[in-house]
Amino acid sequence: MERLPRCLGDLDRKAHPPRSVREEIRRNLIRKLRAGERLFPGIVGFDDTVIPQIVNALLAHHDIILLGLRGQAKTRLCRMLADLLDPEMPAIAGSPLREHPLAPVLEASRRRIEDAGADLPIEWIPRDARYGEKLATPDVTMADLIGDVDPLKAAHRKLDLSDPDTIHFGIIPRSNRGIFAINELPDLAPRIQVGLLNILEERDVQIRGFPLRFPLDVLMVFTANPEDYTNRGSIITPLKDRIASQILTHYPRRIEDSRAITEGEAWLARDADLPSIEIPAFLRDSIEEIAIQGRASEFVDRTSGVSARLPIAARELLVSQVERRILRAPGSAPVARAIDLAQLVPAVAGKVELVYEGEQEGAAKVARHLIGTACRQVFDRHFPDVIREGGESRMKGDRYKPVLDWFAAGHRVDLADDMDDDAYRRALAQVPGLAALADQFLPCHGPMARAAAMEFCLEGLHQHSLLAKEDVATGTSYSDMLGVMLEGLKS
């Protein structure tokens, strides 16, 4: 490994010339594009939309604002921009602005170079340390972001308060020669947003009336939620005008992308002393559909969005539910069942912003509704249409007739999430025609996955109002819909 120089005299001026951070990012970006490297590994669903726009903005030396709803990887994208910086950069040791040794901007640094000459110590700053981030809140001050006069420094060094050496720089100047991101920009008070105007346009700062006209070299990146424009704050027009590129993010547009995000982010590899949990594909898709249905639900505030964190948390809870069953009944197969989806309510209820109608229903009830709707969507994707043809009473192909007739005869299926495997399979196997339906339209490997598919078929019929379902604390019961309705009329 090459030893990096530690003093100005040893610094190779050709190998490490002064270069702006925007030019540095552009050069590294061009190199990666030519080599065909993946620019944002782990970011799924943006290859044809968001990422090309970010690339264009960086090639154009633009400051950027990422505008999108919650859980759309905006902050992650900002942080991954640091991968486009050089592995390390030289800086004058101890400089608050991390100045290049060959291009000092502060008078104090110039004096140090005159005094020390070739012996001036330099330090090497890694790329991770060149990324700064601040969450915008109403209590953020100009001193936090840009800086202020430090009276203690003036008193200690016996300097007049008008001396530039008394200034304590804020977080943005200290990110000089790097990238600085402000999350939730509309939450920043308008008077503080005004303080960013010069940084974005003239690239200088003013502290307590002191104009400091040094070339501030920072790539500014912002994130914002469209909801915030009206609910919590707004971005002042002059600031929006100075942010050169506004890029809209979005939720995954394909369920395959959504599933890939969940599998990449969820904690699924658990303790080594427990078996690996198998989640059938139709249950994995049902989890993704919960978020998709939430974004279209009349009970959920669509302007707030439903974060991709919902299916991540739901997948983790589903794995935990199966683990709990294994720990309570060690002989149980490590396979998720459809009944286990009822345990996902805590992952759903806290991640949806309800409108008035949803508040009236209650968060838990809305969560159960979304889970049921998601199951119906996945059911419809695999099974034949259950809608009756025209005005006929006969359903398409009468595929479901043996199942529905059995329930109409007064039978019921009682399931519990802690049932042992044999009892679970027996309860489902008694329904004539159910196994054939699952094998034909939702084929699975293994007896427990096959039983879960059979249960999922019952859930789909319930979601189409062809079977009644009664939920209890740890279980559920399927029965004939018409029989339940008539029983209700008698009571």
Task: Quickly describe the structure.
The protein is of the alpha/beta class. The protein has 21 helices and 14 strands. A hairpin with a 3-residue loop joins strand 13 (467-471) and strand 14.
Q: Could you describe the 3D structure shown?
A:
By secondary structure, the protein is of the alpha/beta class. It folds into two domains: 8-248, Rossmann fold; 255-490, no CATH class. 41% of the residues lie in helices and 13% in strands. The chain contains 21 helices and 14 strands. The strands form five sheets. The chain has a five-stranded parallel sheet with strand order 4-7-10-1-11, with helices on one face. A hairpin with a 2-residue loop joins strand 8 (205-207) and strand 9. The N and C termini lie far apart (84 Å). The relative contact order is 0.09. The model is unreliable at 389-395 (pLDDT under 50).
The rough form would be described as elongated
Overall domain count: 2
CATH topology of the largest domain, which one? Rossmann fold
> What is the averaged pLDDT score?
89
Class from secondary-structure proportions: alpha/beta
Give the tally of β-strands.
14
Topology of this protein?
Blueprint: H1 21-35, H2 50-59, E1 64-67, H3 74-80, E2 88-92, H4 107-116, E3 122-126, E4 131-135, H5 142-145, E5 147-149, H6 151-157, E6 167-169, E7 178-183, H7 190-194, H8 197-201, E8 205-207, E9 210-212, E10 218-224, H9 228-231, H10 237-242, E11 245-248, H11 255-265, H12 281-296, H13 309-328, H14 345-349, H15 356-361, H16 363-382, H17 401-408, E12 413-416, H18 421-429, H19 434-441, H20 447-463, E13 467-471, E14 475-480, H21 481-490
Parallel strand pairs: 1-10, 1-11, 4-7, 7-10
Antiparallel strand pairs: 2-3, 5-6, 8-9, 12-14, 13-14
Helix pairs in contact: 11-12, 11-13, 12-13, 12-16, 16-20, 18-20, 19-20
